[in-house]
Amino acid sequence: MNTHYQIVVLGAGESGVGAAILAKKNRISVFVSDNGRISNNYKDVLINNEIDFEELGHSEEIIMQAQEVIKSPGIPDDIPIVRILAKNEIPIISEIEFAARSTNAKLIMITGSNGKTTTTLLIFHLLKTAGLNVGVAGNLGESFAKQVANYDYDYYVLEISSFQLDGMFNTKANIAVLLNITPDHLDRYDFNFKRYAESKFKIFQNQSKEDALIFNIDDEIIASRISEGNIPSQLYPISLKENNINQGAYLNNNEIEIIDNKTSINMTLEQLALQGKHNVYNSMAAGVAAKLMDIRKETLKQCLSDFHNVAHRLEYVSSVHGIRFINDSKATNVNATWYALEYYEKPIIWIAGGQDKGNDYSILMDIVKSKVKAIVCLGENNVPIHDAFGNIVDIIVDTNNTLDAVRKAYELASKDDVVLLSPSCASFDLFENYEDRGNQFKIAVKEL
User: Fold this and answer.
1) Which of 8, 13, 151, 433 has the most crowded CB, counting CB atoms within 10 A?
2) In this structure, are 86 and 113 located in the same domain?
3) Please, which residues have CB within 8 angstroms of residue 345's CB and are 6 or more apart in sequence?
4) Which of 64, 93, 122 is the last residue of a domain?
5) Is 158 in contact with 120 (CB distance < 8 Å)?
6) Boundary-marking domain end, from 286, 306, 326
7) Are 62 and 81 contained in the same domain?
8) 28 and 14 part of one domain
9) Reduced to 3 states, what is the DSSP secondary structure of residue 396?
10) Are 59 and 28 in contact, with CB atoms under 8 Å apart?
């Protein structure tokens, strides 16, 4: 095995293996290093592509000779090998940064604490329906790098997390979408909200006057940053509160108006496929992006009215004796859960908990007090939920698996109640990821 590589990839998941495939295609010597065990499917890909790799540890002598390191987004910056790389001033970039160098496609990038997956898939649906040659990647599906290696798309719609933005320096979004900024992943930012917000603002770095920034002007953090100026791109605000918008989207009585170049498209809230306050923002952002891409009015309206939302986000599972079960496993932060609780009018049995990321539950107090009749905790450490809600919810019970959580919620619920899995927390204490948590929830409901 060679011991001198131009690029070392840390992490052998979807992102890392995709980056390695692209490097191999570009005839760049590459080595993949994973501190854990590499899953068999990714190991097979590496072997079939004749890519050198290691697992269950990092070989410092190999990694430190790299010209550049591509770090997978799930790897924190404070682990020893990353600290040593930084100390030795070896550049560390994200897979997104690496892949963007190898494509001339137009890039539409979406970020936000909540709603980015839905908005990404909705924009992709709009462009695909319009007949454009488009791929969707980023924080979902096949990695951006793998798609750049294997396909020749003219456009990419990319869901971008703050972790991916942290490793992006020269990449530019032709259209950037900034949905909202609320506390999330603060454990990765030393519990410093300002640092987290600054990561999100990197979505519009490197933009010029030919590029567009679609942003939620109702979000105070975003509005404050926009007011500071120094943003050369064309600005397209979206709002449910303001209607003095010349380009962007706003709510006018019961209609959203998407406006650009003095032409507008109007749709009533009832016509939108995605219901709920948070989804109005998502539909507005996607509509503005599509209008900037010159998507026909008829196609735009059709897509906003027929889109099917992503699994694990307010996903109806089943009704059992009049009790509705809703899978919102993708709600991994407090703000996402607020939107879920706000959406339902019936009494709620709330299944919550998991790996706490420094959650501040204060914004949920009023809505929990008015809507939640019982809480079923699902996690290894449920103390934060008891501490937060013990004085306002009479019934709080502990479980550590989905089967028990669903059965307990069913026992506590009455006809016409809603059992809502909306954890507010990451899933990694008991599950592989939020999809695994949501799928186990759906299986448990069907076993009732």
Assistant:
1) 8
2) no
3) none
4) 93
5) yes
6) 306
7) yes
8) yes
9) strand
10) no
